[in-house]
Amino acid sequence: xxxxxxxxxxxxxQIGFEVFDALFxxxxxxxxLCSKRENEAYxxxxxxxxxxxxxxxxxxxxxxxxxxxxxxxxQTLSKAAHxxxxxYGQHSCFCQKQGSGxxxxxxxxxxxxxHEDSIMNLIxxxxxxxxxxxxxxxxxxxxxxxxxxxxxFVTQNLQDQYSSPLKMNQIIWPYGTGEVIVQxxxxxxxxxxxxxxxxxxxxxxNDAVHKICAKLMNIKQISFRDINQVLAxxxxxxxxxxxxxxxxxxxxxxxxxxxxxxxxxTSWLEPVHAFSVWKTQRAFSKYEKSAALVSNSQFLVKPLxxxxxxxxxxxxxxxxxxxYTKFGIEEEDFLDSFTLLEQVIASxxxxxx
Length: 353
Fold this sequence. Notes:
Elements: E1 2-8, H1 9-27, H2 36-50, E2 51-53, E3 59-61, E4 63-67, H3 70-83, E5 93-95, H4 104-128, E6 133-141, H5 146-161, E7 166-173, H6 183-197, E8 200-205, H7 206-216, H8 224-239, E9 243-244, E10 278-279, H9 301-316, H10 322-325, H11 331-349
Helix pairs in contact: 1-2, 1-3, 1-5, 1-8, 4-5, 5-6, 6-9, 6-11, 7-8, 9-11
C-alpha cells in the first residue's frame, strides 16, 4: 500500500524533504532488537509506502513538489540528490516564477485554476507508479498564499478525482505573533475549505514545536530546519510500518481507563473503539523504545478560537478585504468560513456532555 505525498509551498517542501530523509534514515538504522527477517520486512514496507526505485538502485520519493517560485524546490531537489541515499523524481515538480504574495485568494482562485491540469497530471503519473494506492499525504502551511490557497484547491481536486483513497493534510499552525498581517484570514479560509474536502487534518503548532526545541532539546538559536526536523521525527513515528496490537491488548488494561473526566469521551463512541494500539518490535530511529500518540481532541479549541476571533475583528473593520475580493473571494465566503469554524468550535466544546 503506497502513499503519494504532495508538498506545497515553501513550508510544505522544506518539511517534506525532512520527512523523507527521516523515513529513509530510520529504515536503514542498525537494529538489534528484532530479527533480520523482521527488519527486512520493515524496510520493504517503508519502501513500498514512500519510495519507488529506479534502475541504479536509488530510491525515489513518491512525491509531487509544487511551488509558485523555483528557489525552494531547486534547493529541495539538490539536497535530496546530494544525499546520495534517495532523491525526488526528475519530472515530479511544478514551479513558476511568480508567488502568491501571502494572499490565499491568489493561490486558490488564480494559481489553482491556471495550473490545475499541470499539477493534477503530475499527481496522476505518481499514482500510476503505485501498485496499490492507500492515500495522499498533503503537506502545507495555512497562513501564506501558495501552500494554503493552492493547497486547499489541490486538496479539493484530489477529493473530486480520487474519492476513495484517504486524503490527509498535515498543516502548520502559524506562530501567534506571525509576521504575515493577513495570516488569520488565510488560516480560516484554509481550515474551512479543508474541513469540507479532507478526510483528516494533522495539525502542528509552530509555537508548540518551538518550545520543544528550546526546552526539551536545549537548542539556543532555533532555526526553521530545527523545527522541521522535529516535525519530521514526529510524522515518521506515526507513518512508519506498524502492526495492529489488538490481539495482545485489552481495553481493561488500557491506561485511559484510569481517567474519568467525561470530557475525554463521547457518548457516540464505544470505549473499545476509542483507543487503538499499533506497534512493531523494531526500534524507531535511534530510540530503543518510543511511542507516538495521535488524538482527536479539544486541544485546538483555544488556538482556533483565537484565530477566528482575530479574523473577525479584522473583518468587522473591512481590513484588507479588497485584497481578496479582487481575486474572487467575496465577503460571503468569509462569512461561510466563520460560520463553519464556529460550529466546529462549538462541537468540540460540547464533547463529553
